[in-house]
Amino acid sequence: MTNLTINGRSLASDSPPDTPLLWVLREELRLTGTRFGCGLGVCGACTVHIDGQAVRSCQVKVGQVGAGAITTIEGLHPSNAHPVQQAWIEIQVPQCGYCQSGQIMQAAALLAHNPSPSTTEIQDAMNGNLCRCATYPRIAGAVKRAAQMMKEKKHV
Amino acid sequence: MSDELLPNAGRRSFLVRSTTLAGAGFLSIALPPALGIGDAQAAMAATPAYTPSIWFTITPDGVTTMHIVKAEMGQHIGTAFAQIIAEELEVPWDKVRLDMPLESAANFGIYGLAYTVNSGSVTTEFDRLSRAGALGRMALVEAGAKLLGAKLDKCYASAGRVIDRASKRSIGYGEILQKVKLEKSFAYPADFRSVKLKDRKDYKVIGKSVPALDIPAKTNGSAKYAMDVFLPNMAYGALAIPRTRHASKVLSVDDSAAKGIPGYLKSVVIPDHMNKCMGWVVALAETYPAALAASKALKIETDAGPYGSLSLDDIKADFVALMNKPEEGANWVLEGDVEKSMSGADKTLAVEYSSDMICHAFMEPINCTVMQAADGSWHVHVGTQSTSFARMTLTAYLSMVLGKKQEELSVFVHQYLVGGGFGGKQDYDDVLAAAYCAHVLGRPVKFIQSRESQFAVSHPRTPTLHRLKAGIKDGKLAAMSHDMVSGWMGPRFAVGKKFNNGTDWLQLDSWDDKKQDIDQWSVGGSDHWYHVPNHRVRAWNSDRTTWAIQASALRTVSNSYNMFVVESFMDEAAHAAGRDPLEFRLSMLNGKGGNRGIPNTGHPPGTKSDYYLDQIWISLPWPTDKSWPEYESGTVGGALRLANCLRVAARKSGWGSKKLPKNTGMGLAVSSAEERQSPTWVAGVAEVTVDTTTGAYKINKLTIAMDMGIAINPDNVKAQIMGSALWGAGQVLSERLDFENGLLKQSNFHEYKPVRQVDVPEFDIELIESGRHPMGVGEPASTIVAPAVANAIFAATGARVRHLPITPAAVLEALKALKA
Q1: How close does chain B come to A130, measured CA to CA in Å?
Q2: Rounded to 5, what percent of chain A is helix, strand, coil?
């Protein structure tokens, strides 16, 4: 049994400690917004936050999380209105949508650490997140828009 | 495959609603949680809803739910369809919802073939969705007029209300349904044909960039893909990577190591009755990680089969051998006298092109969950491009596995959002494997391809080899011949060439008297819209390749390699003729002969047959059903529309005028994907800078102009153009698959490389909203990038690379060849 803090709630997992966090989140705890893409940490679809840092949940064993606070897409904002989420809708980013939870979590972590990223910084931070529909131009645009919204509203 | 695939007159009579039909259809409608923004099912049960045709239902709460049979896989097709219907139906956009009908034998009879392919959804459905919306509006106006006590001819509908011009009073659609039960039905197809549609200048919803209805759920984790399905008591299945891509045979399975994995249940050899899962062993366990670990722990003894030592080099040797037998090639295009014209030419140019395999690599690996219900019926939960084919294929398979008649089997397919399709989610091997496992285990099974197994059993685009020859006379392209060999995907899809009624499916006869088979999906694109008086395209099928790699359709299908070849070659021909590539192209995009496009009836003058019209649409019922009101062909205007796109793109890019830095060049390309009879006109200019010391190059900017007729949702059209253009960029920059000893080699995204954020160039996109019939926009722009980039590399450096992808090494080699 592993105790986890996910989206502010205490949850327990019965999975063996070497189980990738991804599968615990998705299949055991049914927080399915976190997606499985590659299992190798090279696509970013499974990105979640642990203590505010963007991590690939397929590369983290559930036993390694310890007291770390996990945030998934479901817990990014209480009413799904994080500036990144708002910007994603405003700019109409998603196509098939499968990678977008990971993109959004990656972008939210970037902006939490760097509220005014340059174009190059956005490219660097988002480059590990694959989008096969190639919504990249809109992703980059939405990150900038979210940064602007955060400045205007001074929240999150 | 059976006659069931084809439209038949009997089914058509169901197309228009009746009360009983609406009830029957809806009781079994699957509400995908991601799309089901309202609970239409509950609303339906409680109130007398109105379903004037199969495409939508209006409930007394004033909500209109559009029933979307096409796969929602990134193109926002539900939103586009809803816009088309809402326009004529006059319903307010904020009261529009979407759902996806369940696939079953009964619903197939109602909704027809559920198949999303060929960039054809809007093209084929626009007309009848418009008519269905208009008919629904007419019925509501009639009922509303009665309730208002108004004269029918004084009433009109707007924003979900029927308004009496005389009294200025109005009543909402919802109120109408609360007060009366609507029974109005329409004669098919007569009413559909005669209904008066809006003047396109009066459109309010079509042409407006309304936000896509499926997007909010895709930003908060609530969007539901098949991967997110949970059924009580389900087990998990993971595929052990087979010895070869196809046709290996399992001799024995030793699972002693797997037995040590907690949760391991058993391993199952999948019977290969349909040659789809040959050599497949699935490990079953209580959790997916356990199933995956077990799949890797199995010791499987196999007979590698006929392709066990086959590699890409062997395939290339096959290609050359085939092409050296001209008499076996089938003519796809045959105009004028190519040989005679070549011999009289001032100058000839002969070159060879080729392309590597690539695969779809959608972000959502293939997965499905299958259960057999207590009543014996089978339920498949999957995100697929064709729920209909999934059901038919599984029904056929189960009948063989279980020794039952197909009629005794009841199979339902529940559709979900598709996490990327690109032509790769139309094989149903996963469904068969999961169903067989569910049968053996007596429990529901959720089958998930790991990324590694997904690559191993992917359905790649065939490698290709092309030989082209140009005959230049008086500075003009007098003759062009294009020989091509590839693995044809058509034969793999259509088991047995003809249907019982004698119609072809995908495979067409050649243009000459030889009547050889041709797979349209392997040669399309080579039949370009340039006026070349003597033109021949000849094709060979490398059957061994088709089966060994399990060749399939990949976004724009054969256009994805043929446009690279044709458009690179046009540049070469222009230079050989000593002309500017833009001016050279425009001179041939003159709309002459068969390139003028077709009116609704008849066929282009100068063509031998009604070939253009007789190619079969994947969607029903046009044009095989002559009783259907024919809609405007996308070819109207012909090559002149393509020339227009080219002019716009060239001018916007600064072609011929913009000062470019050293080693930077511009390249042009045009395309008319997807098929000759369904062109979306698109032209593009790539601006590329080459590092001549390493051969590496960067796409700085893509300027794209597209004439898609009506842009249903311009903002989304732009998104689709950008996404597909970047897909095209991946094909030229970095994507390739290797094949070695019967196996596809790349295993994950560290080896197979789609474009990423850093590869994104500047975009300048121009929509040419010509107002003609709307054509597909999800794929065509992907075809112009590779040739435009190849031509830009040439313009920048003089290096011509004739192979896809264009690697830095190949650029360096071409640069060295220049110096030598």
Answers
A1: 6
A2: 40, 15, 45
Both A11 and A57 in a single domain? Answer: yes
Look at A25-34, A119-128, B102-111, B337-346 and tell me which has the smallest mean pLDDT. Answer: B102-111
Task: Please report residues of B whose CB lies closer than 8 A to that of A33.
Answer: 220-223
CATH code assigned at A122: 1.10.150.120
The domain boundary, picked from B170, B186, B218, lies at B218
The pLDDT assigned to B511 comes to: 54
In the sheet that holds B697-707, the strands lie side by side as B664-671, B681-690, B697-707, B762-767
Q: How confident is the model at residue A154 (pLDDT cuts 50, 70, 90)?
A: low
Q: Which residues contact B680 (CB under 8 A, 6 or more apart)?
A: B119, B634, B672, B673, B674, B706, B707, B708, B775, B776, B777, B780
pLDDT, position A113: 97
**Domain residue limits at A56:** 2-75
> Å from B209 to nearest chain A CA?
10
pLDDT for position B611? 35
Supply the range of the domain harboring residue B409: 226-306+366-448
Final residue before a domain boundary, out of A24, A52, A75: A75
- Note the pLDDT of residue B612: 35
Alpha-carbon distance of B545 to B311, in angstroms, equals: 10
C-alpha to C-alpha distance for A60 and B461, rounded to whole angstroms: 35
Whether B582 and B439 share a structural domain? no
Number of domains, chain B: 3
Beta-carbon contacts of residue B738 (< 8 Å; ≥ 6 apart): B312, B357, B744, B745, B746
Disruptive mutation site among A100, A133, A143 for chain B (greatest number of B CBs within 10 Å): A133
CA nearest B359 in A: which residue?
A: A132
Whether the CB of B533 is below 8 Å from some CB of chain A: the reply is no
pLDDT of residue B630: 64
Distance between CA atoms of residues B408 and B394, nearest Å: 13
Do B673 and B731 reside in the same domain of the chain?
yes
Which candidate, B364, B29, B107, places its Cα nearest to that of B229? B364
> For B754, which residue in chain A has the nearest alpha carbon?
A132
Give the model's pLDDT for residue B508. Answer: 54
Q: Which of B311, B247, B318, B258 is nearest to B282 (CA)?
A: B258
Mean pLDDT by 10 residues, chain B (820 residues): 30 29 29 35 59 90 95 98 98 96 90 87 89 94 97 97 98 96 72 87 97 98 98 98 97 98 98 92 98 98 98 98 91 90 98 98 98 98 96 95 97 98 96 98 98 98 98 98 94 53 45 67 91 93 95 95 98 98 98 72 35 34 45 85 97 97 98 88 98 98 97 98 98 98 98 98 97 94 98 98 98 94
Decide if B289 and A15 are in contact by the 8 Å CB cutoff.
yes
Report how far residue B285's alpha carbon sits from residue B265's, in angstroms, rounded to the nearest whole number.
5
Q: Which residues of A touch B719 (CB under 8 A)?
A: 92, 95, 135, 138
What is the amino acid identity at position B327? Answer: E
Residue position matching structure tokens 């995956």: B292
Q: Are residues B347 and B377 in the same domain?
A: no
Could you tell me what percent of chain A has a pLDDT over 70?
A: 98
* CATH code of residue A20: 3.10.20.30
Mutation choice for A interface testing from B73, B218, B239 by most A CBs within 10 A: B218
Element at B398 (helix H, strand E): helix B387-402
What pLDDT is stored for residue B346 in this prediction?
98
Our measurement of the distance from residue B811's CA atom to the centroid of its chain's CA atoms, rounded to an integer in Å, reads 32
A35 to B363: CB separation less than 8 angstroms, yes or no: yes
What's residue B602's pLDDT?
36
What are the residues whose beta carbons fall under 8 Å from the beta carbon of B313, sequence distance 6 or more? none
Chain B CB contacts of A122 below 8 Å: 757
